[in-house]
Write a structure and sequence with these properties.
Length: 375
């Protein structure tokens, strides 16, 4: 079905940059250097400066970034990593792919982000790290996570796939915790024309290790220090990302302005359906979610009006076929499960017109009721 207001419009988002992007692509074509060249080096430097991080390593996807980040900090078989129960499955897969075990905890319902007060109960002598997710572009409470991790001697990693450009206490999400993984999947706040990702850290030695791990564990040509993978960020993507990075603040302002339209026009009794923002957080809105009663009916109603909505995510990882039969019982995770049933994601992207957001919010105001969790 063709929607009058689609959930994404990547072609329209890129149109203002078309000239610069095609020039960047032609430059790479003519250079004859397609891997590990000057575009990657320049992008890494420019993105590190943007994030205020000491080092950035470009890799082939967000999942590769998560996985190589865990590899570089020696997370592996026998280790446990605490992770939110309500995230995209890639966060869990990275932990599984390095041979470690994801230990899920429920989020705080209002903020949708990991609930620090639940961490103490799941720590064991095998726990090595917390991998927190800044879900939908809203940073998690880094102060309480950092305090917890320092007290237990754990690494604090963040999955910043959805939060490129967000700040906690005035700092960009890239330099928070020990290391952060970014995704440049086309729909993300900073999107490539295909798969791409990066790790940001202030630990120069670990960054060097990730640089080796993305390229077969190679230090100098054909000197392989460890069993690496092939996870390089390609020159073409790096060149396009450099163009997009120059316009990132503008596109974040457009996203944030549209999020404000939704948030302010939503009627008073629906305000509790919105994601709650900690006072130290400056979100970089990636997805605008509501938690509502009769989600499927409201979604169908919007569809009839030509509005495409999605659910991020309809099945929590522990209930997917990929994970549900893993040995050892998963905890109940009641809030992750309830979120999956009540969340709706509304269109939010730079080329979305303000009047379309207004049209959508008016339908929501007349059709939807906030879901009230029963605790
Ligand atoms: C998109 C996303 C990923 C995976 O990124 P890819 O680039 O698609 O591999 C990981 N975690 C979260 C939270 C994401 O939204």
């Amino acid at each position: 079905m063709i929607y009058r207001i689609p959930f994404q419009n990547l072609a329209a988002d890129s149109r203002p940059l078309r000239h610069d992007i095609t020039q960047a692509i032609a430059k790479v074509l003519d250079s004859g250097v397609y891997l590990l060249g000057p575009e990657l080096a320049a992008f890494e430097e420019e993105f590190a400066a943007y994030l205020n991080a000491d080092a950035v390593v470009g890799v082939s996807s967000g999942l590769a970034a998560l996985k190589l980040m865990l590899n570089a900090y020696d997370i592996g078989p026998g280790d446990e990593v605490i992770v939110p129960g309500n995230t995209y499955i890639a966060t869990w897969l990275a932990i599984s792919h390095v041979g470690a075990r994801p230990v899920p905890v429920d989020p705080d319902f209002g903020s949708r982000n990991i609930d620090s007060s639940l961490l103490e109960a799941v720590v064991t002598d095998r726990t090595k790290a917390v991998l927190a997710v800044h879900l939908y572009g809203v940073p998690c409470n880094m102060d309480s996570l950092q305090e917890f991790c320092s007290r237990h001697g754990l690494f604090l990693f963040t999955d910043a796939a959805q939060s490129c450009g967000a700040k906690w206490d005035g700092e960009r999400s890239g330099c928070l915790g020990d290391a952060s993984a970014f995704s440049f999947y086309p729909t993300k706040n900073l999107g490539a024309l295909g798969d791409a990702g990066a790790v940001a850290t202030n630990d120069i030695e670990r960054a060097e290790r990730i640089r080796r791990l993305r390229n077969y564990g190679m230090k100098d040509r054909y000197h392989h220090l460890e069993k690496g993978d092939n996870n390089k960020l390609e020159e073409l993507h790096a060149a396009v990302l450099r163009v997009k990075l120059k316009h990132l603040e503008t596109s974040l302002q457009q996203r944030n302005r549209l999020a404000e339209v939704y948030r302010q026009r939503l009627s008073g009794n629906l305000q509790t359906a919105l994601q709650q923002i900690p006072s130290q957080a400056d979100p970089a809105w990636h997805i605008l979610t509501l938690t509502i009663e009769e989600r499927n009916r409201v979604q169908e109603r919007l569809r009839q009006e030509g509005v495409q909505t999605l659910v991020h995510y309809p099945i929590p990882p522990h209930l997917t076929p990929a994970y549900k039969n893993d040995p050892g019982n998963w905890p109940k995770l009641p809030l992750s499960t309830t979120l999956a049933k009540t969340l709706i994601s509304l269109p939010l992207y730079p080329s979305l017109r303000e009047e379309d957001a207004v049209f959508i919010v008016e339908i929501i105001n007349s059709e939807a009721r906030a879901f009230e969790p029963s605790t």
